[in-house]
Every structure is written in C-alpha cells, then in structure tokens.
Amino acid sequence: MISAALSFGSFTLVPAERLLLVGDQRLRIGSRALDILIVLVSRAGEVISKDELVSLVWRNTFVEENNLRVHIASLRKILGESSDAPQYISNVPGRGYCFVAAISHKTSPVTPDEQLTFGGKLPLPRLANRIIGREAMLDLLERQLPEQRLLTLVGPGGIGKTTVAIALADRLKDHYPGGIAFVDLAGISNGALLTAFIATKAGGVLTSSDPLAELARQLNHRSVLLVLDCCEHMIDEVAVVAETLIAETQQLTILATAGSRCAFRPNGFFACRRWIVQAPTK
To answer: Is residue 59 helix, strand or coil?
Structure first.
C-alpha cells in the first residue's frame, strides 16, 4: 500500500494530496496522467496491462487505447524522459507498462497519536443560502445520527444532500469534542487511495502498510463526526471503509451523501440506515 510520500529520482509523489513535486516545487499535471502515475508507482516493478490500467484510471468509462498512450506521453514529458530511453515508465511490448525506477518511502516524523487533528484544518464549507423548509428533517436527523453512528443521505443530484449534511454537522458541532471533518469525495476516483485521501483531507497522515487499520486506531476513543460527501461513484469502496471504521471505533460517527441510484450493499450499514432527501417543503 502507498505510504505518505514516495520519492524517485528528483521527484516526490504524495498520492493522498495528489501532488507531484520536483524538489519543493509543485508540478502541473493532468488528473488522468496523475492517476496513471499513482497506479504505476504503487505497483512499481509490476507490469500492468493496458486494459487494467484503463479500467483503474477511467473506471467504467470506455476509452480507446490511444487515449492511454496520449496520457503516458504527457506523463513522460513531465518526468523528462522519452520512450526510447525510459528512466521511469517502461513499455513492455504486448504486455503493458511498468514503473522501473527505484522508489524510497518517506514517513511522517510525528507519532501516530499526533498525526490526526480532525476539525483543526478544514472547517465546514459555508452554506450559500439560509436553509428553508428543512427544519423538520434536520430536527429528526439531529436526534437519529448520534444514536445510529452511520447514516447516509440519499437523493438525486441537486436535491440538496450536501446542504443538509453541512447544516446537520453545524448543528451537532458541540456534540463532537473531537471535531468534525468534511471530506468531498468528488475529487478522487482511485479506490485504493480512499483511506489515505480521507485521512489527509481531515488533517492526518497515514504511514503504515495497513492504512485503514491505522486510521481506525487513530480514531478510536475520539468523538468525531466524519462527513463523506458525494460517495455515489465509489459506493462499494466507501461502504467498506465506513463500516470498518464504525466497527473498529467506539465514538466515531459517519454521515455520508450519495445519489439515489447507488447500488447499496444488501446487508450493510449503508442499506439499513438511509435517509431519503426530498425537495424542501414550502
């Protein structure tokens, strides 16, 4: 599993922050090229087929092989190499691509107990408008969420799930002395990076080979509200992380939002603790 930062040559890759650095300077890189690099580096020394690389990066979207070649070429240009003399990305004819450079792992100098500071780095997003017609819903959710610990707001796009989640979290801010962390998952598409992404957005750093277990240890005995917004595009991965964290912690509460067409797991927390968000009453 990917640690906090990976160094190769003069470059440093921080997957959870989606950063590629040369020295201390951040490099501009497209999101697809960065996803390709993260996958290749995370499995350095392994030949990854073109079909698998496409499925990991584009996730259920049909793309032509030429699209992958274009992004690989862009990535090589950023890394300063050519296909004739690859230092980092080797094309294995008939098989796929392989990251061939030596990699060193960087870890955080702070101890695990110091690493996570929920609520200290990222305040709740501001609501653009005053909430109207949601008071009864918020009153009920305010009572239910602390008791259930894991609840998903479900509804079609634009119905106001994120607005309700932010308003509810704001109401409950005094209920969680450990803080509230709002994590927008719309910006991540690689499920393998989900746990590290959540921890980083919440103000933490994970460095162990089992990031989900480490995150659960850091959150155990902490009264924290974790808001996971826009889960619909990776609902299965989020369900595994959320259910594991709830099972392995004592005071953590998770509030998630997801589209109404999500395929919820039949026996999981996500299936039996849903709240259908409807249009506000007038």
So the answer is: coil
HSE (CB half, 13 Å, CA atoms) of 53? 31
Do 143 and 268 lie in one domain? The reply is: yes
Distance of CA 256 to the CA centre of its chain: 13
Task: Give the integer Cα–Cα distance in Å for 178 and 164.
Answer: 21
Contact 229, 186 (CB under 8 A): yes
Together in a domain, 135 and 28: no
CATH number, position 12: 1.10.10.10
Number of domains, the chain? 2
Is the separation of the CB atoms in 161 and 134 below 8 Å? no
Sign of the C-alpha dihedral computed for residues 70, 73, 79 and 80 taken in this order: negative
Give the tens place of pLDDT for each residue, 176-196: 888 888 888 887 777 878 888
Cα–Cα distance list, 201 to 27, 50, 192 (Å): 20, 31, 16
- Chain-centroid distance of CA 2 in Å reads 13
Question: Model-level pTM greater than 0.90?
Answer: no
The more confidently predicted of residues 70 and 64 is 70
Greater confidence (64 vs 195) lies with: 195
Q: CB within 8 A of 45, min separation 6: which ones?
A: 98, 99, 100
Q: Tell me whether strands 253-258 and 225-229 are parallel, antiparallel or unpaired.
A: parallel
